[in-house]
Amino acid sequence: MPASSEPAASACGRTHPSVDRDDVLAAARRIAGRVHRTPVLTSRTLDAEFGAKLFFKCENLQRMGAFKIRGATNAVLQLPRHVRAVATHSSGNHGAALALAAREAGLDAFIVVPSDARASKRAAIERYGASVVECEPTLEARAATLEQVVQDTGATFVPPYDHPHIIAGAGTAALELLEEHGPLDQVWVPVGGGGLAAGTALAADTSDVILAEPELARDAKDSLEAGELRPPLPPRTVADGLRTGLGNLNFHILRRRRCRVLLASESSIKHWTNRAAQVMKIVIEPSAATTLAAMADNPGAARGRVGVVLSGGNL
Amino acid sequence: MPASSEPAASACGRTHPSVDRDDVLAAARRIAGRVHRTPVLTSRTLDAEFGAKLFFKCENLQRMGAFKIRGATNAVLQLPRHVRAVATHSSGNHGAALALAAREAGLDAFIVVPSDARASKRAAIERYGASVVECEPTLEARAATLEQVVQDTGATFVPPYDHPHIIAGAGTAALELLEEHGPLDQVWVPVGGGGLAAGTALAADTSDVILAEPELARDAKDSLEAGELRPPLPPRTVADGLRTGLGNLNFHILRRRRCRVLLASESSIKHWTNRAAQVMKIVIEPSAATTLAAMADNPGAARGRVGVVLSGGNL
Fold first, then answer.
1. Is B41 within 8 Å of A61 when comparing Cβ atoms?
2. Which end of chain A is more exposed for a tag (fewer CB within 10 A), N or C?
3. Can you give the pTM of this predicted structure?
4. Is B111 in the A-facing interface, judged by CB distances under 8 Å?
């Protein structure tokens, strides 16, 4: 279980955190002007290939290259005034997003990063002015280091995905997509920790929300089919943003919405990461390409007017 | 001199072709709904790097991957009703653009392609349903083959860049950019044959229009500085869309507007092709990256609110 599911340590003090569509609407007002309203692209080539009308919400073109800035900004803006610093653990986009959101709010940021994280991710965090605190690449070391940082600095922990403010912020991408191109029969979204998936499920309340997950990280599928949260699988998928286990709050939101999970093979994820560049002329990361890969691996599943949230572009 | 500067053979029968801003406005109305209104991206990272506020008009995200569909569509829609087929010569984007525009208008298209053209460009032309007619890779063979095709098929020649309808169509990209983000102090645009450059100069009539040209293909710079059209240089630049010599009509338009040409080195063009993917998460072709490369190679030249037309993304 990620540290983020312990409400006592989180930015929000509620012990039974809840979040609904109104929170997504409020988040959209709160973060307006601070994040990009990203473009929606279409492709007649891909429409013909999948037999559906596709609308791609390009969060790869978002500030810092991923939807994560939406949730981080929404969370930071709701911190009490006395807070002077934030902290989190991340080997990826959430660290950079929190670093940027904190800098713009005039806060210090401390990001706990495993020693095996990619240099480019670490460089992005430092470019946005945050302090990187290195730890051993284990869940235990991560939690212990974060706790130490919080004690030493007085920083407030902003969790990466399993938190109402993060979920509501993430849901604003689908909200914009629906405002511009709704109604949609389906909205496809990748699922890892589940913040984007849960936020999308709340925002797109009249669409089928379909979760795309790598076969090698199928804990969301297993959890939702079993009706109870299953532990994450070993972090082997190329879609590095989707290696995390599904968060507890996100599990309950996705379960209540009866969201279906469709799986994508590794070869298909790699293929669609490249194909998006060729056909759509955009750079997407494998986690984002998992949507198209799941669509290709499950022929006929995409139907009607279909939204697709391309979550990020940080390779 | 390209065949396209011979009005008698072109889609427009005027012997003294002229084109002005009203033609760009008319083109915008004519092609609306048939081409994408492409998104405009911004990047605080690049703004900080260049010391200017940059607005990127993403014609790489245009249909068939380049601005060329604007001019081709504008030209095809103005053909007399009796025309049943169009023809052109192209080793690149104009061939694919004309193929697509013709298909949508229910016309046949014949594209003369040199035998050394890249397989991917040829495949794009065929994917849009046009007939590819191969020729030897010389200007003479190209002109002779095109003439033969026109004689054999009765097709109307639609030239690639040096024609009022092509220029007016190309100018609609800058027009949209100005509608959404104007006024702009400068608009940067790559220059090869000069259709996009001339169209932009007409559309952006209150901005400085700055032409970005590869050092290895500096005939536009030499021509505008000499006050007379100079022949193209050997086709050596990596920016393959900019190897063509400046067209005669385009030369006169750009000369009248006193457009300045800034040069870009080959290494800089390659660097910025990659950097756009890293920072902006978009795929642009070297011809489009020539704008950023010229900006980097001429420090301080970009000033104020700056539009940049990223011409295409077909690698």
1. yes
2. N
3. 0.90
4. no
